[in-house]
Each structure stands twice: as C-alpha cells, then as structure tokens.
Task: structure prediction
Amino acid sequence: MKTTAGGAIPLALAFIQYLYCRSRSDGDSCGECPVCRRVTKLIHPDIQFICPIASSKEKPTSESYISEIRELLEKNPYFYEHELYSALGIEGKQAAIAVPEARSILSKLSLSGVEGGWRTVMVYLPEKMNASAANTLLKMVEEPPEMTLFLMITHEPEKVLRTIYSRCLVLRVIPLSGEDFAAVHPEDAEDATRMTDLFADLFNALSEKDLLGALEAGEQAAGLENREKQKTFCKFAGEVLRRIFLVQQGLEDLALIPETEVEFYRQAATKCRKSFPRGAMAYFDRATELLERNVNQKIIFADLVDKLYMIV
Ligand SMILES: [Zn+2]
Result:
C-alpha cells in the first residue's frame, strides 16, 4: 500500500484496493488494473461511501452527492470536514448520517455484490450518525454478511455512539508498513520473548478451557516487574489479538505476520470464537486503564482472565 502518513481516506481506499485488486504482488495492490482504478476513483459498484449530509427530499443519501464527493476526492483526498461540506454545498447546515442513509445501506447489502467479491461500506465521520440511524444499522454492523466490510473513519472516536463503537475493531491510522508494525513489539528482545511466551500460555490455557492454567498465566502477568511492563503486555496482547482477528476474517495478508509465527496465528484463529479477539481486546484495554489507576494488579489480571475465559 503506497500511502503517505496521515490521511485516513486515502489509507482506507488503499486498504480496499489491496483487498479488491486481482493482481497484487509483494504485499501491495498493482494500482493499475481496472479494479484498482475504479476503487481509487470511488466508482466501484461494491463500495458505498457514506458521509454526513443535509438530507432533503431531492438528495436523501450520500449517493445523491456522489459526483461532488468524487470530484473532491480527486482534487484533494486529504480534505477536512469543512471542505467536504463546502464541496457538497451544505456549509452551515446541520449535517448528519440519518435513517434514510441507514436504510439505503441495508437495502443495498440485501442484494448480492455486483462483482462477487468484497463489498465495502465506508463511513466517513460515524460520530455524525444519529441514534435512530445507528439502531437501524446495529445488527448489520454486528453481524455483516459474508465478504462485507464496514470501514469507519473517525477523528473523534470518543464521540461515536457506543453501540456502534463497541462492535468495531479499532485500528489506529498509521501506514501499514512492516516497519511501523514492528514498532508495537516490545523493544527489548528478551521482553518480546517473555511476552510472546506469556501470551501463548494464557491463550492456550483459555482455548483448552483450563481455568487454573489461565489464572496461573494471569498471575505471571501480574508478577511482571512493574506496571509499565504489565501495560506493555496488555498492548502486546492487543496486537496479537488484532492479528488473530484478521486471520479469522480471511485477511491474513493484511496482518503482516512474520513467517516464523504464521503457524501460531493460523492455529490460534481456529481455537477461539470469531467474537473473541474483539471482546478480548476491549478487556485488555480496560485492564490497561485500571493499571493506570493503581488498582491492585493481581485483582486486575485475575478479573481479566475470568472475563476472557467466559468469551473464548
Ligand atoms: Zn490492481
């Protein structure tokens, strides 16, 4: 994916392009085939682009503004929110993602994809989705049909409705190069090995429904020398879970897994429920928060293990 740092929309499009491209190589889309071209120009029939609009009878959904959106994207894919509104001619109006939009998404997804591959719903600024629209979409976001991807781009994740947010896998926008990805691993090689082993112990015990073994691994995590190390472990676990999730979704290529670890991830993906990685990531995040608040470490990790055990 040849993208520049920053700019979530170009990155999202690069991600979709990679997913859709029919002649990708070396971990990148070709950028030249007809599919790639249509993705870049946002004219692929299996991509819906949704953004806040001022809905009216004449223009009820984002699709009614699609030519303005394409034009803006071509001129400046790094546009800001206010530039979008001025391109759509709705400056100063109340812009939202409302129920007609949600209904239109559902009705399109009820039909099969035009090209028989992935279908994507890109939602730009999901924080502008009102509660009724979110309720309409909830079930679909929670359990999308096969080969259907919801990609939401927000600058203010804390403002996205919790019902929607809690069903999403959160990816920070960084260019997905191997180098950047490596940065999430503990710097110290010894640390990396310890954390990998510890995570493997915990995960294996959980997946074998061995509660005692899992609690023991939890105790080891609580026994890491300090809160910083414990937090690093939680962050590390989050990254491993993210990769397991991607493998489960058939997106192994995007997980950028070192060759020596591929087997572990493939196994792991079959050993837990598909809902596990997302749920577990949320629990590790919660544990990180509690670690920052000086709650007793043994309690934090015992509680974490209990929760993981329930959902694995
Ligand atoms: Zn291509």
Observations:
- Residues 186 and 192 are 5 Å apart (CA to CA).
- Residues 1-6, 175-184 have pLDDT under 50 and may be disordered.
- The chain has two domains: 8-176, 179-311.
- The two ends are 33 Å apart (CA to CA).
